[in-house]
Amino acid sequence: MLDNAQCPDCKRINEVLSRVGDRWSVLVVIYLARYGTMRFNELKRTLGISQRMLSLTLKELERDGLVNRTYHPTIPPKVEYNLTEMGQSFREPVSALGYWALENLNEIDAARQAYDKTVAK
Amino acid sequence: MLDNAQCPDCKRINEVLSRVGDRWSVLVVIYLARYGTMRFNELKRTLGISQRMLSLTLKELERDGLVNRTYHPTIPPKVEYNLTEMGQSFREPVSALGYWALENLNEIDAARQAYDKTVAK
DNA sequence: CATGGCGGTTCCCTATTTGTAACCGGGGTT
DNA sequence: AACCCCGGTTACAAATAGGGAACCGCCATG
């Protein structure tokens, strides 16, 4: 399976990216960076994510130290999420990726169509 | 499932990230950016990826117009991969992400341990 | 009294991802 | 003859991700 002469960083980069690199995490970070502080259902409505996945994603992000969770025991309860310092530092590479994605979506679609045409005849 | 008032960009960002955002694609792009041109088994050995996943990943990257595939019908066959222009432009946000991952891996691990200690007692 | 919102958790089920192993042709090496 | 390399493809199995729906306490509203 694993070959012998691997790069030393690969495994570690891979580890981090598999933690924070899924698309829900990325979207949550993008929107927390953009709006500063958001509540649970606010994120849910904005992102179009299921309650379950949002809960899991936020828990993971909190565990990884990227997101702060603040619980206000009011009625009704109010839970606010915002980025930690590390989360802020993550914002830069992530939003760079997001912007790239937006800028190149059309070109990717075109490349796909061209590729499919040459292959699938 | 999906709520009503979604952000317009979410779906599109999501689309692109789900295409190019998996960790093998990211690693392939990072290493092609670093070394310019690489052969199939060279990538395989370097990245510690299975033959099957590398094949699938490269095919997707080629389809999305990020990677060029050059087949030399020599004996033994030689297939070289390098980044297209769009792949080059992808390099910046991606390597920023890779560097961030390397720089913050330790802090993430520490945050995890701290979190697990407070919760799982 | 029923309903709804908030912020979740839990169960169930399916779909996608990923790994493992075998195989392919075509040739070289021992 | 037996094995290895290159660059894959295919079949199968296992793990994981992800959605949907139901439920929770607590209170307000109608």
Sum up the structure in keywords.
homodimer, globular, DNA-binding, 121 residues, disordered N terminus, Arc Repressor Mutant, subunit A, alpha+beta
Structure write-up:
- The structure is a homodimer of 121-residue chains.
- With 121 residues, chain A is an alpha+beta fold.
- Chain A has one domain (8-120): Orthogonal Bundle (Arc Repressor Mutant, subunit A), CATH 1.10.10.
- Helices cover 69% and strands 12% of the residues of chain A.
- A 3-stranded antiparallel beta sheet of chain A has the order 1-3-2.
- In chain A, a hairpin with a 5-residue loop joins strand 2 (67-72) and strand 3 (78-83).
- In chain A, helix 2 (23-35) crosses helix 5.
- The first copy, chain A, is globular, with a radius of gyration of 18 Å.
- The relative contact order of chain A is 0.12.
- Residues 1-5 of chain A have low confidence and may be disordered.
- Chains A and B meet through helix 1, helix 2, helix 3 and helix 5 of A and helix 1, helix 2, helix 3 and helix 5 of B.
- The first copy, chain A, binds a DNA duplex (30 and 30 nucleotides) through residues 1, 22, 39-41, 44, 50-56, 71, 75-79.
- Chains A, B: It comes from Aquicoccus porphyridii.
- Chains A, B: Keywords: DNA-binding, Transcription, Transcription regulation.
- Chains A, B: InterPro entries: HTH_HxlR, WH-like_DNA-bd_sf, WH_DNA-bd_sf.
- Chains A, B: One of its GO terms (molecular function) is DNA binding.
